Amino acid sequence: MSAGVGVDLENLWIRFGDFVAVRDANVNINGGDFFSFLGPSGCGKTTILRAVSGFLEPSEGNVLIGGKNMRGIGPNKRPTALIFQNLALFPLMKVWENITFSMEIKGASSAERRKRADELLDMIALPEQGDKLPSELSGGQRQRVAIARALCAEPDVLLLDEPLSALDLKLRQHMRTELREIQKRVGITFIYITHDQGEALTMSDNIAVMRAGVIDQIANGKTIYNDPNTAFAASFVGENNVFRGKVKQVMGNEALIATNRSGDLVARISTTNQGKMKEGDDAMMFVRPEAFAIAPDGASGDHFVTARVNHEEFEGNAFNIFTEGEGGKEIKVSIPNHGQSFDDHTGQNITLEYETHNAVIVPAGELAAE
Amino acid sequence: MNNSFLRISIWVYLVLFFLYLLGPLVIMSITAFNSSGFPRMSPWECLTFQWFGELFQDQRILNGIKNSLIIGLGTVVLSVAMGLAGALMLTQIWPKLRATYYTVIIAPILIPGVVLGISTLVFWDRINRMLGLGADSFLSNGIFLTVIGQSTFIASYCMLVLVARLQRYDMALTEAALDLGATHAQAFRKILLPFMRPAIASAAVLAFLASFENYNTTTFTFGEYPTLTIELAQKVRYGITPAISALAFIIVALTVFFALLNEAKLKRQELVAAARKNATVEELAGKIKLPSFFAGNMAAVLLVVFAIATITVVGTATAYDPGQCIADVREQKQLEAEQRIQELRKQREERREQREAEEAEQGGAQSTPKPSNNSGFGNVFAPNSLGGDEGESDDGSSDADPAPSNNSGFGNVFDPNSLQNDE
Description:
- The structure holds two protein chains of two kinds.
- Chain A has two domains: about 5-225, Rossmann fold (3-Layer(aba) Sandwich), CATH 3.40.50; about 240-365, CATH 2.40.50.140.
- The two termini of chain A are about 35 Å apart.
- The relative contact order of chain A is 0.12.
- Chain A contains nine helices and 20 strands.
- The radius of gyration of chain A is 24 Å and the shape is globular.
- Chain A is α+β, with helices and mostly antiparallel strands.
- Chain A has helices at about 45-55, 95-100, 100-105, 110-125, 140-150, 170-185, 195-205, 220-225, 230-235; strands at about 5-15, 20-30, 35-40, 60-65, 70, 80-85, 155-160, 190-195, 205-210, 215-220, 240-250, 255-260, 265-270, 280-285, 290-295, 305-315, 320-325, 330-335, 350-355, 360-365.
- A six-stranded mixed β-sheet of chain A has the order 6-7-8-3-9-10, sandwiched between helices. In chain A, strands 11-12-13-20-14 form a five-stranded mixed beta barrel. Chain A has a five-stranded antiparallel β-sheet with strand order 15-19-16-17-18, with no helix packed on it.
- Chain B is an all-alpha fold.
- Chain B has three domains: about 60-240, Orthogonal Bundle (MetI-like fold), CATH 1.10.3720.10; about 245-320; about 380-423, no CATH class.
- The chains are: A alpha+beta, B mainly alpha.
- The interface of A and B includes residues 84, 88, 89 and 153 of A.
């Protein structure tokens, strides 16, 4: 899988006037990886993509593609192809002309282009649609045509700017699988921009979580989900319950924190913060809804939380319990449904239990907006 | 009652409005077919196509049309290019400067054409002198100056048309082309230009029409190359003939034709698009049923009617010979003229006789000139022939076909040849 061309961002700063869009980004993307930049809108991820594709010169630092510095090289000279958020298919060209635009530029004959277009149309499972106009295709079909057009240019790196955001949920989920398959088949580096953590987690080899121009964490999906290194990463990726407090005692890889409302709790310190946190630090503890279990009444200790149930709902694959939490924020508990009986706890106090290695402590920081 | 009154008023208003709009055009068109030597609709004399023939033999008019076409084409090229550049600039310029830039670029539309014409002339004359070129240099060439002068404001019109389309252009398309390896020139030529094509066509038509009809700027710059409008204006000074009506008719007909053609085409595209949409809904992909050309396409129907009418008119024109009618009318006129002359002569004769009688009374033995029968006037002044003549002209006014004969009492008086002979 390392046959592809890697992309490196070195001390990348991008400023627009006084506004810093990207602050000192350092990223190494391995060749052949499916790499995602994940962050809320306005965090600078599209700016990074434009810097990689060459539409934007970084204010400081360098973009390296395959080890080669790209400064001063225009977008038409870079071995990248970008799939635009709105796809930017050429509305006046037929599908096959769209797909083979990069060949037309190089002066390929019409027959050659037709042949290549048919190959690519087969690959994206749209055979015999070459003579239609983009406006005559459905959203998902247009999506695939955009991918084929980009692939036709035979780029070393394919850049995708939230290409699925305009699709409906079903199609989005289908396209995730399809994109991943295409990436595996062609074996080139994909750089994917998204604000949807589901997309990032399901498709990516590695993910960079971004917040306001800063990259918080770069890791594979599992690590980001289970072992976030900042409060933002923990709260942005997946659902998470937050408990604020101060570190009371550090015990190797674990720490005891005195929370504002739920007493003293123990949890694992996230890997990158191990050894950096000390007593008295402001900390946040995160517990995933599915990491909680209902404990027998009266149980207590440093991994038990008591709470009053506000309401419950049945989601199909799980029962969700919403209890009163800190500062008006609810604690969500998700009990997997495997056919067990389930009592209604509304209005009651219940004790929740978690295993210490399933909860994670990070230094206190900014949370992702809901 | 109230409602029907309202409806009638609306109809009356509409009729008046369209009369006001189209009436002059209709009347002018009709005069092109009247054989009267002055463009007028009544009295109607004869249906004739001679003015068209005369139009196409008028070297000044033909030369004017030629110059207008050359200048029109030059203006189209220059104005559309400048308009497109201006429009592109408007989308690229810093947002803060945009309003100012827009005002500056629109300003020529608000400046009187006369001012533009004079300033063009003065400016290029100055440049011409600075470069030390003579009066016959390219920079003082009438065509060059007119194209430049007209383009100063026509380019602004073009820009307005082009900006409207450009605002709907997705800049991401250019970026996508660049990203796929195109150079800026390729992206412009293969993506932006095709997108702009409809607007460019509109702007070109607009520019051509504006150039073709322009007078007030051109009047200062045309030099040795008068355009059609200039020629017409000069002609009017010496009196106009229905040949100008014929020209107007041709222009009106061409305008109507192209307007209908365009309308029919647009409507057709609309219908095709609608049919395609239905097809995808019904999943009939690949089997798109095109509507027949006329279904729901009023403009196409009108176009065909118009074309048939044109063919009929042209066919009639080639087959129809108004010579007889014109000859008749001419004779009719001659008769009227003769009658008037006759009356004058009669009055003069009476006065002369009166005078003679007075002289006779005075007993003067002076000799009076006697009219001789062998003069060019024939027997006009013979009392006998006078009587006969009066009878005949009465016939002429009552009879539809007077068929005057040369052996009338007038002899060959009004035969141009005899007049010449006489002189």
